[in-house]
Write a structure and sequence with these properties.
Elements lengths: L5 E7 L2 E8 L5 E6 L7 H17 L13 H11 L6 E5 L4 H16 L4 E5 L4 E2 L5 E2 L8 E5 L2 H6 L12 E2 L5 H4 L3 H9 L24
Helix pairs in contact: 2-3
């Protein structure tokens, strides 16, 4: 493996998608898929802005200083520019304070953009006889952002109802493909020897003990 001398963040829109390790000649050696790191959204947007604000207050930075951090503004533009069916629900697992903080932050941005929003625990989402996802009051959920893995949802009791539920999921189910590290093995299988890829394989016998040295 070539030694990496820098790490670059690749972004699509506003959300981090991947980390690419680069060699001294600046060529990408490998790409590590990280398409679902929503837990870092509030850190990237809010913490960075607060740091800038505090540095200006202390006189460390000039009063007209700015930074390359418009994540919150761009998220607000996306929520405001799209015609989402409302109420727009934001869901996280009940006992995860970190996930709830992230979901609350996104919900606040959507509310500021003019959307009618709701917070809900994933555990409180149900399914009515018509196959619609509903909240605890029985109201249908027309639009949903969930901080909950698609891979788990596919295997949950209500997984088979996803396609016909009528709910708009923000993010779409196909993101489960990009977020799976198995894609690295498929890329190597189809493009073995490519200079921007490292060997990656799916172990057909995961129960087998690792070889000495691993």
């Amino acid at each position: 493996m070539k030694r990496s001398t820098s790490i670059r963040l690749i972004a699509l829109g506003s959300l981090p998608l991947a980390l690419a390790a680069c060699d001294s000649d600046r060529s990408a050696t490998r790409v590590v898929s990280e398409v679902k790191r929503y837990q870092d959204v509030d850190s990237c947007a809010l913490a960075g802005y607060l740091w800038l604000e505090q540095q200006m207050q202390r006189g460390v930075l000039p009063a007209d200083a700015d930074q390359f951090n418009s994540l919150e503004e761009k998220l607000g533009q996306v929520f405001g520019a799209n015609t989402f069916a409302t109420p727009f629900y934001f869901a996280s697992v009940r006992d995860s304070l970190e996930d709830r903080g992230t979901v609350q932050y996104l919900c606040d941005i959507a509310t500021a953009a003019g959307l009618d929003t709701r917070l809900i625990d994933v555990e409180d989402i149900g399914l009515n006889p018509a196959g619609r996802f509903i909240d605890r009051s029985g109201a249908p959920i027309p639009s949903l952002f969930k901080l909950y893995p698609w891979e788990d949802m596919f295997h949950d009791r209500y997984g088979p109802a996803i396609a016909g539920s009528g709910t708009l999921f923000v993010e779409p189910p196909w993101k489960a493909l990009l977020s799976n590290k198995g894609m690295l093995a498929l890329l190597w299988e189809q493009h073995e020897g490519h200079p921007n890829l490292l060997p990656a394989f799916i172990d057909a016998t995961p129960e087998r003990p690792l070889a000495p040295g691993w």
